[in-house]
């Protein structure tokens, strides 16, 4: 599979938006992490539907629904991907509110390595020399953190292992990015409604009127980021997508320190510096290959 410039751009765009969302969640008090998750699901649903219309993908949504009726195995698959996505959406907004954003960040440092491993084992994807060097540097950083701390928190492990099976199922299902995401949000909507009705603090929107515009904004950001990420997962080899995904935890790290105010211990720098170098190698390699492909086309 060739490197798609559009796929790389979508992956970088998704990383930028995802890095904003945990910091954004800090402004949604008095809602706790579970309520922010529930509201995120409900506000994402109309945002994704509007994107479907704007992008002219309603025919793809109709085809996806027809496929669900023709192929019952896809119903089980879409319920599974919805559950996997729901867990990731919950932890993504729960962690910063509960001062575990650095654990979240470490999980997203581990997740691209999981994607690279999945791409190599299940899809026989091969990495170029600079990509292999980048993975090596990233692995050094992760190994140092494991040696320094001695274990990973449950937040870190959930982030690290949750997305690879999701992407594998979504690739197998071959649904349009917007259509599949819309169907997953439809399945998660009853859960979100139940959580809001039974556990939401009374009068939240009266005591915090800023929620009226911040929550729709969260839905738009979530829809745009996931649509871009899923588009990238179809346009790029999983290994390359995994390496490009290091952009997100680097940005999350800066958000954790400079926005959320979490403190980095001196020993942690030996974790982050090799990973940042890996990101630079990947960016350089991707730009180099894209320029080479462009010269061949012209």
* Unreliable runs: none
**What level of helicity do the residues show?**
over 70%
Strand-pairing-aware structural class: mainly alpha
N→C terminal distance: 19 Å
Question: What portion of residues belong to β-strands?
Answer: under 5%
Number of helices: 13
Mean pLDDT over the residues: 83
Main beta sheet: none
Taken in chain order, the helices and strands follow as HHHHHHHHHHHHH
What is the overall silhouette? globular
Structural summary, described in words:
The chain is mainly α. It has one domain. Helix content is 82%, strand content 0%. The chain has 13 helices and no strands. The chain has helices at 5-25, 33-54, 58-70, 73-97, 101-123, 129-149, 154-173, 177-199, 204-207, 211-235, 238-244, 247-258, 269-297. Helix 2 packs antiparallel against helix 8, helix 3 (58-70) crosses helix 8 and helix 5 (101-123) runs parallel beside helix 7 (154-173). The longest helix is centred in the last third of the chain and has 29 residues, at 269-297. The chain is globular and about 50 Å long. The protein starts with a helix and ends with a helix. The model has no long low-confidence stretch (mean pLDDT 83). It is found in: Cell membrane. The chain crosses the membrane at residues 7-29, 41-61, 73-94, 106-123, 181-200, 212-231, 238-260, 272-291. It is a multi-pass membrane protein.
């Amino acid at each position: 599979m060739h490197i798609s410039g559009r796929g790389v751009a979508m992956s970088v765009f998704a990383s930028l938006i995802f890095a904003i969302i945990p910091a954004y969640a800090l402004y949604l008090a008095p809602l706790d992490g579970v309520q922010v998750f529930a509201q995120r699901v409900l506000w994402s649903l109309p945002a994704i539907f509007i994107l479907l219309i704007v992008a002219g993908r309603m025919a793809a949504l109709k085809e996806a629904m027809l496929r669900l009726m023709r192929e019952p195995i896809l119903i089980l698959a879409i319920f599974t991907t919805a559950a996997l996505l729901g867990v990731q959406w919950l932890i993504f907004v729960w962690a910063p509110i509960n001062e575990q954003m650095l654990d979240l960040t470490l999980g997203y440092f581990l997740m691209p390595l999981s994607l690279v491993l999945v791409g190599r084992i299940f899809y026989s994807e091969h990495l170029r020399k600079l990509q292999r060097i980048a993975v090596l540097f990233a692995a050094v950083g992760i190994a140092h953190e494991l040696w320094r701390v001695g274990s990973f928190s449950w937040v870190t492990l959930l982030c690290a292992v949750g997305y690879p099976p999701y992407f594998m199922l979504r690739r197998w299902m071959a649904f349009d990015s917007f259509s599949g995401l819309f169907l997953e949000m439809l399945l998660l909507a009853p859960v979100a409604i139940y959580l809001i009705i039974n556990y939401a603090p009374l009068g939240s929107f009266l005591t915090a009127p800023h929620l009226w515009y911040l929550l729709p904004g969260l839905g738009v950001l979530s829809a745009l980021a996931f649509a871009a990420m899923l588009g990238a997962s179809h346009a790029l080899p999983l290994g390359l997508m995994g390496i490009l995904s290091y952009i997100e935890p680097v940005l999350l790290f800066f958000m954790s320190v400079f926005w959320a105010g979490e403190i980095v211990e001196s020993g942690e720098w030996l974790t982050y510096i090799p990973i940042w170098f890996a990101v630079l190698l990947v960016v350089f390699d991707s730009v180099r290959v894209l320029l080479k492909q462009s010269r061949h086309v012209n």
